[in-house]
Amino acid sequence: MVLFILRRLGQALIAIFGVMTLVFFIQRLTGDPTYLLVPETATQADIEAMRRSLGLDQPIIVQYMSFLRDIAQFDFGRSYVQRIPVTTIIASRLPYTLQLAGGALLVSFGLGVPLGVVMALWRDRPATKLLTGFVFASQSMPTFWSGILFILFFAVWLGWLPPSGAGGIENLILPSFALGLLSMATFARVTRTAMLDELSKDYVRSARARGVATPRLFWRHLARNAAIPVISVAALEISQLLAGAVIVETVFAWPGLGLLTVQSIVSRDFLVVQGIVLIGAFVTIALNFTADILYSVVDPRIRLDGSRP
Amino acid sequence: MVWKAGLIGAIAVAAAFAAPVDAQAKDVLTIDLVNEPSSLDPHGQWNPDSYYVYRNVFDNMVTRDNDGEIVPQVAESWERLSDTEVQFNLRDDITFHDGEPLTAEDVVYSVERITDPEFASPQLGQFDKIVKAEAKDDQTVVLTTDGPYPVLLPQLVKLSIVPKHVVEEVGAEEFNLKPVGSGPYVFEEWRRGVQVTLTRNEDYWGDKGAFATAVFRAVPDAATRLADLQSGAADLVVTLDSDQARQLETYPNAKPLIVQTERVGYFAMNSTKAPLDDVRIRRAIALAIDKEGIVEGILAGGEQVVGELVSPAHFGWVGDIEPFSYDPEEAKSLIAEVGEAAKTPMKLATSPVFDQKIVQAIQQMLTEVGLNVEIEMTDMATWLRNQQVSNEEAPMLTFSRWSCACQDADGIMFPLLRSGQSWSRWSSDEVDALLDRGRSSLDEAERLEAYGALHELVKEEVPLIPLYQAAIIYGGNEALEWMPTANESMFLNRMGWSE
Known about the structure:
The complex is a heterodimer.
Chain A: H1 2-29, H2 34-37, H3 44-54, H4 60-72, H5 86-121, H6 126-140, H7 143-157, H8 169-199, H9 202-210, H10 214-225, H11 227-243, H12 246-251, H13 257-266, H14 270-298
Chain B: H1 2-25, E1 28-33, H2 48-54, E2 62-64, E3 70-72, E4 75-80, E5 85-90, H3 104-114, H4 124-127, E6 130-137, E7 140-145, H5 152-156, H6 164-177, E8 185-191, E9 195-200, E10 213-218, H7 222-231, E11 236-240, H8 242-249, E12 254-269, H9 279-288, H10 291-299, E13 304-305, H11 328-338, E14 346-350, H12 356-368, E15 373-377, H13 380-387, E16 397-402, H14 410-417, H15 429-440, H16 444-461, E17 464-477, E18 480-481, E19 496-497
Parallel strand pairs in B: 1-10, 1-11, 14-15, 14-16
Antiparallel strand pairs in B: 2-3, 4-5, 5-7, 6-7, 8-9, 9-10, 11-17, 12-16, 12-17, 13-17, 18-19
Helix pairs in contact in B: 9-11, 14-15, 15-16
């Protein structure tokens, strides 16, 4: 166990270092942010002065070394555009990202898993066909479209919820559904498949033959055994919810990290992008790690020395 | 159809419900911007989402009234002491929001701060002609320029006065987060990524605002801004296109607000390289572009075709130069005269910031008269760099829009036409002499004459092609009373509300 954790930590460090290096160089390959900061009328001398003050006049290797030095001291630098520390900017956005991811996860997990179970247990009933249709529709609607539909229907027409912005819980509902419905479909499908898989196994047949009632069968056996694939998918989906909310954030003017990422990439705010990527890499690695631990909790047959059945 | 009727009905119901709330609470004006301000330090950035907000928190040296005339603000009056010195007499009744009076010290500090290369203000280039600022007494400041500089006042429209004692005490970073100014609104709170809240300055020396509170929010998606306006969540929204303006006209509770700006759309050609070094080709391009078609068919948002490289909102607009007519036949015959050389492949540089409908239409128009034009799309930073390199590397063709934020011909014609300027692909002694006269003469009539002569030369030699004066479209609540201005400002104390 200890060995496993140490090895994973080592791998994580290497992965984060690789990601940071890649992001550092790729960003600088794409060009120079100075031109975006000054008005059209700026002279070459103004542009040079700006470049010097941002440290972009240094050779790229020198910039890279000082970047590594700063990162090692947890200094993420200052935004070129906003002129305040990157950590302040990210810290102000992170709570909103977590709220939205939490809301979306609640929708996707809370709806998706029960739907998947129902679709598997009663797979031959006509009502299930309707549910399947609903799941497919949720998966097929692009969020920029479903988002604006939600706004028009619930905010403009019915006037129940605010159309955009962040604030109270009422602001969170529409974006959570717009974002959550998409991964809801994934959860429903994976749960359904996993359940069907288990249902066809011998132990289920013999349990049924013994007269075990469906609820008991479900809670005692099926739920646990079908959980493994759902956990793997959850790890992936959560990291996607954290990173991939750009469109929903844009439509609902939700001030999360996704929106900040895109804006920072467009304005070449290198240090902000680097900070976000670092957090993203860290979260993804942490989630996968948690999923690995959870496997062994749910299914003791899986041991954490790297070998899986 | 049923859906639409239902929607309109629903809007009416929503409006009916929203109305009483509005009536009692119209002390809060909510404005949807595209992004949040990058900084509220008036010297620390250069973008509209920032200056829409901070121009209400700070007073400027001078300002423009709704007709575009320069009128006093912090400076009550001014007189020219010599070709390079102007004396400004300041109001004595301005106090900052912390209660301290605004004095000549603060003006001198503001000038020195924004022109300090170490501070690296993005606006440095707008003020670096000022070489000295000196306080004669508490209410008198003398600014010295590095030569006769007729555009000083138009530039000072954008010089926000910051309090020396606060900035020095708290430092630039803290000041950026909690700005203290002397303007009609006081900074209240900045919820990062969400909104900036300002409250009315009850002790303001000038016109006080009509709304007790103003909230500026960041709403990046235009469709969402429209929905906010429709549902009453926002009272004023920025940056709509003409389709959205037409949609607005069908809403019972909102209206489009359109203004012609000082931004000029133009088509630039690298006349240092074949085949564009031949004036016949440049003229052919000018004749092949259907300017009316672009303005009325594509933009359709109140733009005006111009024949000069300035707009009526600029000093230097003469107004008697006819735009090139749309004459593809004449263009074809000019191209035929030039012969094979005209077929040289040319790249039309663009970036997603520009309206691609226009870029594609121009490519189509040029292809139809027999030119070989290919669109080259890059991101904005790359596009900007490519515009500012040597003649040899610069793109052959460029569609662009230019604003100097000074409403003076010098700010647009000098960088685009003066030889040796990074944006300019033109080199002519005659043009240079006229541009220099326009930049240094303090006699308005002489300047106007110089720009008139330049407009004629531009029409004759076609170094680039003026296309149109750009418009911008805001959306406002039906009850909002506001006249947007050419310099894209948003002064809250010039707005009103009538149910």
